[in-house]
Please model this.
Amino acid sequence: MAEEGVKLFSHLINAHHRWLARMQEKEATYAVWEIHEIRNFSIIDQENHSLSFQLLNDLKALDDEVVYTNSKGARYQNSYRDIFMHMINHSTYHRGQLSRTIRNEGLVPPNTDYIFYRRDHF
Model:
């Protein structure tokens, strides 16, 4: 994968990880633009996936609020619902960038739509 693709996918999984940490009121392990080895992508992605569903299952109400500090030190408050929607939109945006990057390398990008993932893996 080209350097740009590694950077984008690393950011995508880091951001997901950071939002999950905020919702748990924990410190994030990864920096926003930290670069990961390709061999670690699936491990981090699976951890994010599992924790996302665990949080959704444990939540009492999606409209409950989370107070958090962003990567620049500013404090905010949003509902779990809004945070999960943001995580989905953020991921979609960067998956589109990744698809373009892969096409620019002369390759065919994989289908990254969630429903196809669910059909193939569960």
